[in-house]
Amino acid sequence: MIHRRQHLAAASALALLFVAGPALAQTTAPSISVAPVGATAPTAQGGANAAVLLYNSVDPRKSVIAATGELGGLEFHDLDGARRAALPGGETYAVDTRDLDGRPVLAVLDRQAGRIRLSAFDFATGQAQAIEARPLMLGYAGEGLCLHKSPRDGSLYAFATGGEGQLDQWLLYPTAEGKLDGRLVRRLHLSSEAKYCVADDASGALYVSQEAVGIWRYDADPEAEAVPTIVDINRLGRIKGEVGGLAILNGGAEGNYLVAANAEAGDYNVYDRNAGDRFLGAFRIQANGADAIEGPAGLFGLRAPVGPDLPSGALLVSDDRKVGANTRVLSWQDVVAALKISPGQAAPEATASKLALVQATMETQPVEHDGDAADDPAIFVHPTDSAKHAIIATDKKGGLLVYDLSGKLLQDLPDGKMNNVDLRHGFKLGGKTVTLVTASDRTRKAVAIYSFDPDTRQLTSVADGVQATGLSDPYGLCMYRNRKGATFVFISDPDGGVRQWKLLATPAGKVRAEKVRDLKFDTQTEGCVADDETGALYIAEEDTALWKLGAEPSTGAARKAIARVVDNPALKDDLEGVGLYAQAGGKGYLVLSSQGNNSYAVYRREGDNAYVGSFAVIADGATGIDGVSETDGLEVTSASLGAGLEAGAFIAQDGRNVSPPENQNFKLAPWSAIAGKLGLK
After folding, report:
1. How many angstroms from the chain centroid is the CA of residue 451?
2. Which of 339, 367, 402 is at the close of a domain?
3. Residue among 676, 243, 632 nearest 421 (CA)
4. What integer pLDDT is reported at residue 233 of this predicted model?
5. Domain range holding 81?
6. Which tops the pLDDT comparison, 11 or 219?
7. Is a pLDDT exceeding 70 seen at residue 30?
8. Residue 499 contacts residue 512 (beta carbons within 8 Å)
9. Distance CA 9, CA 329 (A)
10. Which residues contact 174 (CB under 8 A, 6 or more apart)?
11. Cβ neighbourhood burial of 190 (10 Å; 0-12, 13-18, 19+)
12. What is the SS3 assignment for 514?
């Protein structure tokens, strides 16, 4: 696959305007007036920049408004607006909340210290208590903050925005002491100041208001491709000047909305999230015929009943007026009634992911080259010394790499653009039995052939000169050793061709490749694996299916699709790497990279190769090893690799090595963790 690792600045992404949705149409409808139903007491020592509603599910009428008061800290109000308590914390300027383990957790931006502060609120006492394990320093003052709870794995993230276009994503994770720690996992950048953001936990969408440009939508998953979509833009769209605060009121399929402060116009725009963020209309906040908001700032939406005055939830609007800054409360029912739209249902519960979720316990050093460089790993299992197991992997911009099982680089062999790699033991060469390693050499359009020394863990070329493939671009590769001891290699090209060679030793102690079969697929293939015991060959046609064929040259082109993209919702193209977890008696599992949704599908080795489930590799905040995404090549082994890996291991290329942002690498997870989550034997 041609890997697209993009981090688009807003300025360059303006080209998206020409394909953007109906929100950018310039016809104008008159605004509709909606009156507030309540307000908090003015802040004690500063402006009103942001507020959230802490929902009390036991008694919604005892829900609490938490509002930033700058030097006055985070202020807590009853629904009638009376101030009940405050939590000091530098210069509080933004706030968001999520429920975590049955309690509201608050994240506050402290601009004075340039940090994120974390606290938990107790409805019984009406107080909040700091719970951060250590100061989470941004490295800049900050302008805004929002939280996101991942629908994929339930992880809690904080996004912080800055005056120079910063957009940083932090993973917040629990410590053994019951506190929260944080780790920077993704750093995006806009071309100018971004002050407000909001994320939807159900869909995983992140909206960011770039004041001088407009509203962008991102995928909030840190492993997702960082390509923004424009929702609305000032002057050319529905925004008159600068865009302000954002809020989501998710009422499900019948009413799911984004609200944005069109500050200069004095309006609040409403967009239909169920229709590609289509502009629906705008309203003004007025009381007694006059605008009730003097200094539009942050917004917060809650789509749940909160007492008789707020039957469909609330929209909080921070009014950063010069005198008497406070938070205004609107009934969401009043807003949707004025706009003649449906309020939808009560806030939908986030659907738990059906994926089995595991964490990597090791990652290799990043490859030397940037961009899409790392691709495919193979695992060398030392027959007698567990300290000498190794990973052989490709840097397709440089050559072959050898790592130990701690991820340390042992050899960097700059031998050309090697795309895929595989190995087989037991090859007779020069009077010795060697481990043979082959790679698809895109520089020479050849089969690269090496021997691997089990003690020095070094590769040495043993090719009998350049072993030309005759292919347009040698791409995917896998090896096969049959029961008679013959060794073969398969290489694919982007045109759908797959060629098979038999590897033969020469009297001079070299290896040559003799072509024995050609196969043809309709579209591009890359990932493949051969089963030496059963004689089966599995090839992934990226956009279509995982195919099963015979690995022997005499078996011809007959094939069977064991997994089609269109038939299994768990699969999303491209289908990439394939690995075999072989067990005794023909049992075991096939593992397939479903690159389009950053997961791995598992099929039985035996019988009709039935699908048994999918898993994903997610971030581990405590160790700092991020998740795995955009995987090209993978490998799996059932051999014991030592302590913690007694049942073998899974290793995959990480196409987005985001935490910290580095060149691509490879990550390893114990097979026992995968088997446990999927209920495998």
Report:
1. 37
2. 339
3. 632
4. 94
5. 12-339
6. 219
7. no
8. no
9. 35
10. 180, 181
11. buried
12. strand
